[in-house]
# Entry
Amino acid sequence: MSETTPILEVQDLTIGLPKGSDRDSAVSSVSFTVGRGEIVCLVGESGSGKSVIAQSVMGLLPKSLPVKSGRILLQGEDITHAPLSRLRELRATRMSMIFQEPMTALNPVMTCGDQIDEVLAQHTDLSPAQRKARVLEIVREVLLPDPERIVASYPHQLSGGQRQRIVIAMALVLDPVLLIADEPTTALDVTTQAQILKLIIELQARHGAGVLFITHDFGVVAEVAHRVAVLRLGDLVELGPKDDVLRRPQHAYTQMLMSSVPRMEAPPARPGAETPVVLSVRALDKTYVDKRWFGPARTVNAARDVNFEIRRGRTLGIVGESGSGKSTVARCIVRLIDPSAGQVMLSGEDIAMMPAGTLRPLRKRVQIVFQDPYRSLNPRRTIAQAMIEGPMNYGLPHSEAMARARSLLELVRMDASALERYPHQFSGGQRQRLCIARALAMEPELLIADEAVSALDVSVQAQVLRLLADIRERLNLAMLFITHDLRVAAQVCDEVAVMSKGQVVEYGPTGRVFGSPEHEYTRSLFDAAPGRGFEFGGSAQAPSA
# Structure
């Protein structure tokens, strides 16, 4: 095989969809290549066919998605319709895949070391001692601390970033020539994301592999790509070098995607900084005590001396790494967990230490929108049942609850026909709109959005952010916006609190924090943001705050 032969060639690939789908093909006549040492980013909205292409290369497509025409060549070998026995020989040895969610990709009842060893046992003749040595070697190569402890640990005992490194170790342990990375950093905070991206780039260069990188984060694309392929509803609409596609997009769809990418600079400050205070958090602490059978108890300070306030019609953003205490603070405010000390003043009333039996009126006044809308909605209940349950529990008649539900669907720009449908019948962006409407049905004083847009495509994310901004303006709501995406925080938040190790290390107007951060940790967060400083072509203003 010639050195110039691409690692991967996809030629006029067409993959069908089941009867009754919204279009005939998941992928239609798609062609591209991945060369040795090259990173090709496959981008597009959900449903564009990105993951279908990745699964077709790995031979993981279900029978309901048949390859109708075209070819997939791995180092010149046609594997389009290769038998399962041949695909098993190729997986891990010549092509490997890093999946988006490591917790579901890993076996929860096997140690991490055993899962890497399983790859070696299936594909090599190495002795147990040699396999153990190779497992420790690859764990060191992905820069995991204390390899002996890591290989003896189960997935749930590791952090998200550490689990993703284990998945990368499994993918690279046999030096494959093709690495497919399917949204490998979507759920990670910016510093862990930066570490994983740097690791993938270094390992790819060291091993000389070609990488097919699937993502909807254009900051990541700007950071790692050599070439970019843009998919829309199964069609390849643009393909070219990174700078050409991102800075000078030609297709209208690509231009729309680029204009949806939020910028890292904060827009001008909005008026209204002197409106009434809705939420005031003072000296909030949350301490967990891990009692053990043997040895002393371990104390974890999840939140320490947290102070901030949110005024009516304003949005406060809390940013920081995983484990910084963001969600702990939100749960203390909603009283899903009890604070250890401090005050949570809701419109002047301290709710921090209220007995559990007196909290029922509070539930109506504070509502929360979670990250995953599909898990937030009961799959067996219609949208109407989900939306009227809360108001009716607080005494609103059925007819009035239904009328409120219809008006809220209009507010979140959904048709009233959605009321009789079930959650699985909507897209991710639509489900998140429905969760927002359900939260607003309680007419809260404070709306908390906990990573509410992190899993959405950039264009859908822009729509939901505009929707939240519009709702805040119309209803004069106070909002607490928790995110690890600094671009999103810059666009939607009036003030920002930066958390690290349970403490607020910087707090102030968004323009000041983003324009001249004072704390070293804040500066490190901004430095780690992928694609920082990259100018995307056609960048219209992102959703205004």
